[in-house]
Design brief:
The complex is a heterodimer of chains A (363) and B (161).
Chain A lengths: L1 E8 L3 H12 L4 E4 L28 H10 L7 E4 L2 E6 L4 E6 L2 E12 L3 E3 L12 E3 H10 L7 E5 L3 H12 L3 E6 L9 H9 L4 E2 L2 E7 L6 E6 L12 E4 L3 E3 L3 E3 L2 H5 L4 E4 L4 E4 L12 E3 L9 H18 L7 H16 L5 H16 L1
Parallel strand pairs in A: 1-2, 1-6, 2-3, 6-19, 8-15, 9-10, 9-15, 10-11
Antiparallel strand pairs in A: 4-5, 5-6, 7-16, 12-13, 13-14, 17-18
Helix pairs in contact in A: 1-7, 3-4, 4-5, 7-8
Chain B lengths: L1 H4 L4 H6 L11 E4 L9 H5 L5 E2 L9 E2 L9 H5 L5 E7 L2 E8 L10 E6 L4 E11 L8 E8 L6 E5 L5
Antiparallel strand pairs in B: 1-4, 2-3, 4-5, 5-8, 6-7, 6-9, 7-8
Classes of the chains: A alpha/beta (363), B mainly beta (161).
Chain lengths: 363, 161
Amino acid sequence: MIYADVLIVGGGPSGLTAAKMCCEAGLSTIIVERSHILGGQLTKQTHKFFGSKDQYAKMRGIDIAVKLQEDLASFNTLTMMLETTVVGLYEDKVVTILQHNEYKKIKAKAIILATGASEKFLAFENNDLPQIVGAGALQTLVNLYQVIPGKSMVMIGSGNIGLIVSYQMLQAGIEVKKVIEATDRIGGYKVHASKLKRLGVDIQTRKTIKRAIGKDQLEAVEIVRIDENFQEIEGTSEIIETDLLCVSVGLSPLHQLASMMNCKTTYISELGGYVPLIDDHFQCSVPGVFACGDMVGIEEASSAMMEGYLAGLYTCNYLNQPHLEAESLISHYENQLYELRNGLFGRKTLRGIEKRKENLIHA
Amino acid sequence: MLNSTGVPDKDQVVSRFFDEKILSSYKAIIECYEDIPCNPCATSCPVSAITIAPDIHAQPVVDPSVCTGCSICVTSCPGLAIMLATVKKDKARFKIPYEMNESFEKGTEVHAINRSGEIIGVAKVLNVSNYPHQLKTRLITVEVDASLLHDFITIRGIQHG
């Protein structure tokens, strides 16, 4: 049995920032990360980030991933377990991990879940053909491993991920033939859409994919216009030849480990799906278990980092070993989070958080 | 239009420009039409010519009497929504952010492109810079006909057609 004060599951933006706070407070901390590198989604995000200085605005995601790891480099109370998966998690905070084909157990006084999210997919004919990929997989192939999986691409979804990944594929030399969007409005920031448009990429709203065409792999896609009830409009079919189709239709929080520990969860559409119910201190319904980042509601990496710092600080308080600057840091990061969400694009998240709170009271 | 195609209306574009008297020297033109939580343009400006108020969601406002046309904001904007523009007689000059792989030689002629991605004329490349503080966003100085002032947005190599 390995013992630690804090076990953090997930080495993405929220897990790494939570770890920094725990380490600064002097707590022995373990980060368990499934991948062979730390940084989560940041490791494939080659674009410059929005936000303010506190969220490393104007730095590229890949550089933020490096920065967050540098912040942790000096702590000898920190253990990082890469290529390690949590396979069992119990209410007494004994965690079974699988590391390089070996099962081990960790007992922690507190657990921070920062597992992130998984991609949603879309149902259409032939959606299992090779060369149909999610935006995350495409970024991994192209940005992380420099593998170019196709000559041309059609993107489904115009949220920030769909727009940004389309831009990245153009940078990699892939011809982006079209970005389509089912609603009547581009979902992501319009500056990202304008970047694509000036490079000659057509973005079309009220369109969806009807089927993928191909024998052994994708050869073409059939696109149709849809009405306000998302029903196909007859006679609008269009066949586009392409050898790559990217589906970017949103993310779902990875709540499963919280559910495994009997933390209460609820479906909240504004937050992307099932999320663990957390209190104002990021604590789940099981005492000593905290959750932060996309796992408790889909937002951007900027918010995930702010949540990570806060979840880390509240975890230190829970273990009666508060961070020396706990009070000022908590108010600082709470303010940052409030500011990030207090605009047009944050309204949906705030509605979701309100529902999460209401559900917690009823639970 | 912006919401469904990604192309701002002409009125929107013109509202972000300054008159030709002010544009006798380089000024920042910021095409940020949405309230998004972002402020590197304002915090990177060495002379505080850009204001984002009352909070981080507000759209940036440039004070052209303070702006020195230094171009730091151009490569700081994560949305690639800022360029510098100046007009001298019948020529307009721009400093634009560029992140594609294509490289451009000083002195060559390339396509001038509008906000819809269409070719609208010829642009002459005057300079290309890529200093460390630009964080891999190149800054390209180009010259186009002054009639393209409100239409020009980027360039494309001739070989691309």
